[in-house]
Design a protein that fits this description.
Elements: H1 19-36, H2 43-50, H3 54-60, H4 64-79, H5 89-105, H6 107-119, H7 123-150, H8 160-177, H9 185-194
Helix pairs in contact: 1-2, 1-4, 1-6, 2-3, 4-6, 4-7, 5-6, 5-8, 5-9, 6-7, 8-9
């Protein structure tokens, strides 16, 4: 995982002196979430798996949610970058396919789904999740769509936020319910919602 991020960071509870220990904590949180789920994930277990003191974790993060958010942000930037530069319908299609793989195969995808579920009944998680992850990524996705529209690559009938919701919503729903991703799902979404203009 990269050590830096362009997305907003949570204010630190204390100094970060040991990058190796920080990464060990993030990897441990990833692994333990996959093994035990959100409810079974504890700071004590993360500390044991990472080989650090529990007090060290609490100096750096106020809760397990913030640990998972750091993990999600850094892994997303590496494994699921939003297309930049010249954007086409095909590059948006590629992004959506990568998103589907991220949710179903990448441990960080399980983190995203766990935080999404937890945010439904925990206002603090919802606020932090939106501020630190969802809002910055949606800004990038809006820019992706705007550049494709400006280049006459796509012509969606919906506004940018509704378009992204309609594109990613079925993918998230199937991942949340454990359903398989139909082979033609992404192609159908792109063709029906983005409506590339004919030359």
């Amino acid at each position: 995982m990269p050590a830096t991020s362009s997305q907003p960071r949570r204010p630190r509870s204390g100094p970060r002196r040991d990058e190796a220990a920080r990464l060990a904590v993030l990897h441990a949180a990833d692994d333990l979430l996959a093994e035990h789920g959100f409810g079974g994930l504890t700071v004590e277990a993360i500390a044991r798996r990472a080989g650090v003191a529990k007090q060290t974790i609490y100096r750096w993060w106020p809760s397990k949610v913030e640990i998972l958010l750091d993990t999600l942000i850094e892994d997303s930037e590496k494994s699921l970058p939003v297309p930049t530069g010249q954007v086409t319908a095909d590059s948006i299609r590629g992004y959506l396919r990568a998103f589907a793989r991220f949710l179903t195969r990448d441990p960080a995808g399980k983190v995203l789904l766990a935080l999404l579920a937890q945010a439904q009944h925990d206002p603090d998680t919802a606020e932090s999740f939106h501020k630190r992850y969802l809002a910055p990524r949606r800004t990038q996705e809006r820019d992706m769509l705007a550049r494709a529209i400006d280049a006459d690559e796509i012509s969606p009938e919906l506004g940018p936020d509704a378009t992204m919701d309609a594109l990613v919503g079925p993918i998230v729903y199937r991942a949340l319910t454990g359903a398989s991703m139909p082979r033609g799902l992404v192609d159908t979404l792109v063709e029906d919602l983005l409506r590339p203009r004919p030359n």
